[in-house]
């Protein structure tokens, strides 16, 4: 497995100078992340990473920003004004299934076992801790504080990708099972999340929880932390343009017809990508409104 390199991250910073839609959004996302790091300090900012395509974009962006901060003599660049922190705009309360509500609000639970060929992390209460390794990324930036809330019954392929990414990007990763609210509280109270005040999330508009501000505190009933959404206004096509153009490794399930990943019990390949020969890869989906067409379907 290849570690991330300076050349990989230089390409991101160079691409952000482009005047097209992707270049403009890249520059805005970089400025937002950089501003949050300036305001709160690098040690107080963590990444929520679940291996999905949007989080993978965000991980690569975050690594590029940290690389620029620690290796670019001219840093900092001209800084954008951060948007005012505000609660999410008014919207109807989403209707949650009993199982998903339990996943959000139930007691913290240990994460499911990793696939047999994936190295387990150190057990810590309701989490496993995967400590950063000394690869080439070690000289590019400090370890990235990160947390992974697993889906119920996660895909083994996705689990492998998350742990591989932790090694590739030098993540200090804490992996929790269900009971997201309780798990977040545990994370913020343990050594991994101690003093974390802001968490970067790969949420995009159109996601079930995508009706949110770029900077928004958690709801009053949740552990208090600032949620930061650098790719909130990115389109499905822009996500795949970024990943493919910059050769960012993604979970191979997307090559098999999955366009949105959840639990193995309720996520199937997108039926719109089915062909006589099998399934097209996720980036070939023509109608972005059907990104979640495979969610809620029973797998066979």
Core attributes:
300 residues, alpha/beta, Rossmann fold, eight-stranded mixed β-sheet, two-stranded antiparallel ribbon, 7 helices, 10 strands, 30% helix, FMN adenylyltransferase activity
Task: Characterize this entry briefly.
One of its GO terms (molecular function) is ATP binding. This protein is of the alpha/beta class.
Descriptive account of the structure:
The chain is α/β, with parallel strands linked by helices. It has a single domain (6-87, 99-219, 231-268), classed as Rossmann fold. Helix content is 30%, strand content 12%. It is built from seven helices and ten strands. The strands form two sheets. Strands 2-3-5-4-1-6-8-7 form an eight-stranded mixed sheet. A two-stranded antiparallel ribbon has the order 9-10. A hairpin with a 2-residue loop joins strand 9 and strand 10 (278-279). Helix 2 (21-40) packs across helix 3 and helix 3 crosses helix 7 (236-245). The model is unreliable at 87-97 (pLDDT under 50). It is an enzyme of class 2 (transferase).
């Amino acid at each position: 497995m290849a570690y991330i390199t300076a050349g990989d991250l230089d390409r991101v910073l160079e691409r952000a100078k482009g005047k097209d839609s992707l270049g403009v959004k890249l520059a805005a996302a970089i400025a937002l992340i950089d501003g949050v790091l300036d305001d709160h300090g690098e040690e107080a900012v963590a990444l929520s990473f679940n291996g999905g395509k949007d989080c993978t974009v965000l991980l690569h962006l975050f690594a590029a920003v940290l690389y620029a901060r620690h290796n670019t003599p001219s840093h900092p660049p001209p800084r954008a004004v951060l948007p005012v922190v505000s609660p999410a705009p008014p919207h109807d309360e989403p209707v949650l299934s009993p199982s998903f509500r339990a996943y959000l609000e139930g007691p913290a639970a240990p994460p499911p076992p990793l696939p047999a060929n994936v190295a387990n992390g150190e057990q810590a209460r309701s989490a496993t801790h995967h400590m950063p390794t000394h690869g080439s990324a070690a000289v590019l930036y400090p370890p990235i504080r990160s947390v992974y809330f697993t889906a119920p019954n996660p895909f083994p392929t996705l689990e492998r990708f998350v742990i591989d990414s932790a090694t590739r990007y030098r993540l200090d990763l804490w992996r929790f099972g269900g009971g997201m609210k309780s798990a977040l509280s545990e994370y913020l109270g343990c050594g991994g999340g101690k003093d974390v005040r802001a968490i970067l999330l790969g949420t995009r508009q159109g996601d079930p929880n995508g009706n949110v501000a770029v900077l928004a505190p958690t709801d009053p009933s949740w552990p208090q932390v600032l949620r930061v959404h650098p790719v909130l206004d990115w389109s499905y096509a822009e996500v795949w343009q970024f990943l493919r153009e910059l050769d960012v490794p993604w979970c191979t399930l997307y090559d098999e017809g999955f366009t949105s990943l959840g639990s193995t019990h309720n996520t199937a390949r997108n039926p719109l990508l089915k062909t006589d020969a099998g399934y097209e890869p996720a980036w070939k989906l023509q109608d972005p409104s059907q990104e979640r067409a495979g969610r809620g379907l029973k797998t066979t």
